[in-house]
Amino acid sequence: MSISGKIFDIQRYSLHDGPGIRTLIFMKGCPLRCRWCCNPEGLQRRDDILYDSTLCIGCGKCLEVCRFDAVYLSQEDGFQIDRVKCTHCGACAKACPSGAKTVAGREITVKEVLDIVRRDKPFYKSSHGGATLGGGEILEQPEFVYEVLKACKNDGIDTAIETSGHGTWEHLEKILTVTDTVFVDLKTVNPALHLKTTGVSNTRILENLQKVNDFMGKEENREKVFIVRIPVIPNMNDSTEIAVEAGRFLKDLHNCTSVEVLPFHNYGEMKYKKLGLSYEFSGCPNSTAEMLITYQRNIIKESGRDVVIKKM
């Protein structure tokens, strides 16, 4: 029987998650609670119910099928969800004829993922693309992720992962053996700031970054690509001091291919509303490349590494 995993989306024709044209598989579940997360529907392993009040036609079918008294009528926003009472069973979404209520999360087998990925093999060949697994956090479902990547490799499909690095080295090392391009986030080297902004310690993350670096230094892994990504968040880790600390840490990662500075964006704001969550960065403007040049230069100065400001 094929092993299965929990995902919340599959995005085809992705252009920012590895070389060429990619198929991006979003895993469910993450141990971090980054305050700027643009995929809040990927945080919990369980299914999430999203509600878009602009699509509600007021039919009341969701109210009829909810067995837990978790749906109520709001004069302003239609049939809202009481998130305390909601059990995430999905009955309201199944009954909704307009798509106002939808489920984020589904079980999927390795074979089902591979069947979807294979559809775009002609595009991979022409663009040197492939499949990328992100999240959420891939290390929350390591065995499934490993099997998907191995199946892709066996089918001649290029592989990539995006990870926070927060997981056991045993799992990460195994996944690396079937991965061509590795993206690891570095939110901040500062332990107190990392705990404050993500809810977890960065001790394991920094240790794993060093271990990934050592892994990439082995002769058999020389063709693999190792990229560190730094999301730059306004009023959190965008100071000169934090950039200098990051640069000093990166200086010792001799097998890191390059460093990418990621601009802040608020594209995920609507998802928070659909999940009934508050969004801390409401009204905060997106970063521009010009805003990040000094940050980039500080990392280059301290690390001596190639640092690229990614476009959104």
Output the structural class: alpha/beta
Major beta-sheet overview: 9 strands, mixed
Distance between the termini: 40 Å
Find the count of extended strands (DSSP E, 2+ residues): 13
Can you describe what's shown?
It contains eleven helices and 13 strands. It has 312 residues and is of the alpha/beta class. Strand 9 (158-163), helix 6 (169-176) and strand 10 (181-185) form a beta-alpha-beta unit. Helix 3 packs across helix 5 (142-154), helix 6 runs parallel beside helix 8 and helix 9 crosses helix 11. The protein is globular and about 60 Å long. The mean pLDDT is 96.
Q: Could you give the topology of this structure?
A:
Blueprint: E1 4-14, E2 22-27, E3 48-51, H1 61-65, E4 71-74, E5 78-81, H2 91-95, E6 101-104, E7 106-109, H3 110-118, H4 121-127, E8 130-134, H5 142-154, E9 158-163, H6 169-176, E10 181-185, H7 191-198, H8 203-216, E11 225-231, H9 240-250, E12 258-262, H10 269-274, H11 289-303, E13 307-309
Parallel strand pairs: 2-8, 8-9, 9-10, 10-11, 11-12, 12-13
Antiparallel strand pairs: 1-2, 1-7, 3-6, 4-5
Helix pairs in contact: 3-5, 5-6, 6-8, 9-11
